Amino acid sequence: MKLYRNILGALMSGILMLSSCETTDLDLTNNPNDLVPEQANVDFFINSIQEDFVRQFEGDADNDINDNWDSGGNTDGDGLNELGMEITRIVNMNGRNYASVYQASDVDDEWDNCYRGIIADIRAMTPLAEESGQIHHIGIAQFIEAYLMITMVDFFGDVPYSEIIQAREGIFNPGLDAGADVYDAALSLIDEAIASFNADALNDPDVDFYYGNDYDKWITAANTLKMKIYLQRRLVDSNAITSFNSIISGGNYIQDTADDFQWNWPGTNASQPDVRHPRYGLNYTAGGANEYMSTWLMNLLDTTNDPRTRYYFYRQNTNVPGAEISPDEELLSCSLESPPQHYIDGNFTFCWLDNGYWGRDHGDTDGIPPDGLRRAVYGSYPVGGRFDDDSFEAVSATAGSGGNGITNLLTAFGVDFMRAEIAMVNGDETAAEGFLLAAFDKSVAKVQNFLVGREAGADTSFEPSPADITAYRGALQSNFQNADTEGKWDILGEQFFIAHFGNGVETYNFYRRTGYPTTLQPNLEPDPGSVIRSLYYPSDAVNNNSSISQKASHTEPVFWDTNNSPIAN
Predict the structure, then answer these.
(1) Are 283 and 386 in contact (CB under 8 A)?
(2) CA 395/CA 391 separation, integer angstroms
(3) Closest CA to 21 of 125, 97, 100, 107
(4) CB-neighbour burial class of residue 556 (10 A; exposed 0-12, middle 13-18, buried 19+)
(5) Which residues touch 564 (CB under 8 Å, ≥6 apart)?
(6) C-alpha dihedral (90, 502, 253, 162), degrees to nearest 10
(7) What residue spans of 157-268 are helical by DSSP H?
(8) Quick check: 306 pLDDT over 50?
(9) φ, ψ for residue 313 (rounded to 5)?
(10) Which residues on neighbouring strands pair with residue 23, listed in sequence order?
């Protein structure tokens, strides 16, 4: 059953110290801010920390009052992955003008989950774990804190960190730390985590959701997280590539998919708690899907015969108005419209796609017609939905494998993409080709293996054959070899986006860091304003913390984003 969540520590200017930790035997007549140690359990803390961490990326689907996701805002289910995927055309973004798409109130949940949830729990757990010799609990918390805080920098820029201790220390309005300083602190914290993983603990966590108490794998993930940090700041750190390569030379980083740092959603249970992948929970309902897939991404995969297509997208209907059937104003109003001139000039797909891939263009703000049981939805990978076997049946709340999906965080294929990017930066296009193909191989294998034993009744004869995969791989290699340098970057960017389907944090970072791919579908609005380089600070933070002033614009870049390449609006 869902355990009660306690309030830990004193309230810090409305943004800190309300804990999401789950405890038992809570006497509600006591002051919840004066908990005694026996009222808290280190294992309950670490369980909550691990789950809340993945929800920073994925949000939730049910607005359970026992978690940190109540507001919703303009985004569906929230989570930083969703925000990044919308900006980078992995899913539809509903907004013609960037300045109005994400308001300050839309990210209250993410801020709340970070500070009042995860960080508060870590601060409360650590002394208890130190006292009881539970050093591996501390190591996991140190790793998660480092990962969490660099991700906050990636989306918000400067964020509170060094002054976040406890309100009793006398700091009620923690100031902003420079993003570069938070990154430095994260690297130090990762070193501390590695030391904690190497130490002997009196006992391990009852549940380690990521690596099952295999601390060699935790160290491998920690080194990979360092690689991510070095790559992320390569534009502002002259030693970043050398530091990155030193880890490669050491050989202790994620190289095998079996070592991927990922969260496995149990699936099936839909309430109190909802343990399904949140994107499944939002789209596999009795009324059908609540999100639109990106016409840009679906078109890219469908027209190139990408072997991952049927795993990524499930088509509820074989016909799309304007394509296989006549335009329909009620179901797809744009099917009766002409594409805007900048779509015609750029030869971008508009409104409808062939073969039942019913989605929406970037920035489409049309109302919601009765198409929830018609539009394309997430497939089997990575959310645990239906594999597309040409059944063309409407989704339901139990379809597919019930939402037992995964959240990819640090992956072997992602490391190969990192190495491909470094090779391109160094002008070694031959090495970049090899890493690109290695990333593709690992991505496809992971996607295909994901379906094995997961969805009863799926007609697997529709899976791509080895010959299909070989043909696509050959075309990918040929296209890369024949492209100029700009074209190679575009191909690398497209493949990066495809493989990272579901992880909008990585695609958003790559897009800002490199400016590629340049092939992205633009906003339907000819002049939507500048693309979002960082999110506004949340309303709650600005209103309750006198040390935080709202940004003048969402065009303010984060510290590592010095890339002057234009990125599509």
Answers:
(1) no
(2) 11
(3) 125
(4) middle
(5) none
(6) 90
(7) 179-198, 215-232, 240-250
(8) yes
(9) -125, 135
(10) 4
